[in-house]
Amino acid sequence: MVERSLSWLNRFRRLTIRSEHRADMHVAVLQLGYALISLGFLG
Questions:
Q1: Which domain holds residue 13?
Q2: pLDDT at position 15
Q3: Rounded CA separation 18/26 (Å)
Q4: What does the alpha-carbon distance between residue 6 and residue 19 come to, in Å, rounded to a whole number?
Q5: Whether the predicted model's global pTM rises above the 0.85 cut
Q6: Which residues of 13-30 are buried (b: 16+ CB within 10 A; e: fewer)?
């Protein structure tokens, strides 16, 4: 399950290459990626 989630997150280029220097910004983009994946399942 974890490997599948990580492969879905790899579709988002901004998460694959960490361009944010601040940890809180990286977490925010990560949460946005999870939200977009969840919306894909719902809609």
A1: 2-42
A2: 67
A3: 7
A4: 18
A5: no
A6: eebeeeeeeeeeeeeeeb
Q: Identify the CA nearest to 36 among candidates 14, 13, 8.
A: 8
Number of domains forming the structure of the chain:
1
Q: What are phi and psi of 21, to 5 degrees?
A: -90, -20
Q: Is residue 14 within 8 Å of 29, Cβ to Cβ?
A: yes
At 22, list the tokens. Answer: 């601040």
pLDDT along the chain (43 residues), means of 10: 74 68 83 85 77
What's the DSSP call for residue 4?
H
**Which pair of tokens denotes residue 36?**
């977009």
